[in-house]
């Protein structure tokens, strides 16, 4: 497997609807693997594979007590993703503001050169 940057791992993990649904469930609090698997019509090994992707991205941590594995969210990767997205939004807003200023300047210059009449 390629060595992915943490942000790549986060977005890869969040790209799948099943994993996002698991994250939404874990946002309400810790859950066992059985609880996480319940809404999905897939095998337990498939559920475990989805959880492995979330764990590899650092989005989920789990603890085993006896035969029960309980999962919970880890927010640091989500915070990194949010920071990156906010930086992108800020950069594009700045670009759009400069474009708006440029277009307004062009229109003002065009209005100054219209013949009276």
Provide an overview of this structure:
This protein is mainly alpha-helical. It has a domain of 69 residues: Arc Repressor Mutant, subunit A. 64% of the residues lie in helices and 12% in strands. The chain has five helices and three strands, in the order H-H-E-H-H-E-E-H. The protein has a three-stranded antiparallel beta sheet. Strand 2 and strand 3 form a beta hairpin. Helix 1 runs antiparallel to helix 4 and helix 1 packs across helix 5. The termini are far apart.
Radius of gyration: 24 Å
Q: Average pLDDT, to the nearest integer?
A: 91
Q: What is the name of the CATH topology of the domain at 6-74? A: Arc Repressor Mutant, subunit A
In CATH's first tier, which class of the domain at 6-74 applies? Mainly Alpha
Strand content: 5-15%
Give the helix/strand class: mainly alpha
The total of helices stands at: 5
As residue ranges, the low-confidence spans are none
Strand order of the largest sheet: 1-3-2
Q: CATH architecture of the domain at 6-74, please?
A: Orthogonal Bundle
| Mass-distribution shape | rod-shaped
State the helical fraction. Answer: 55-70%
CATH H-tier superfamily of the domain at 6-74: Winged helix-like DNA-binding domain superfamily/Winged helix DNA-binding domain
- How is the main sheet built? 3 strands, antiparallel
N-end to C-end Cα span: 71 Å
Order of helices and strands: HHEHHEEH
Total number of β-strand segments? 3
């Amino acid at each position: 497997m390629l060595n992915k940057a943490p942000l790549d791992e986060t977005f890869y993990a969040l790209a799948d609807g099943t994993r996002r649904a698991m994250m939404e469930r874990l946002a309400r609090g810790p859950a066992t693997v059985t609880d996480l698997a319940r809404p999905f019509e897939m095998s337990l090994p498939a559920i475990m594979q989805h959880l492995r992707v979330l764990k590899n991205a650092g989005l989920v941590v789990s603890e085993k007590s006896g035969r029960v594995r309980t999962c919970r969210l880890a927010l640091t990767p989500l915070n990194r993703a949010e920071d990156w997205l906010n930086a992108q939004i800020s950069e594009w807003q700045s670009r759009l503001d400069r474009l708006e200023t440029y277009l307004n300047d062009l229109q003002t210059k065009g209005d100054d050169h219209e013949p009276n009449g």
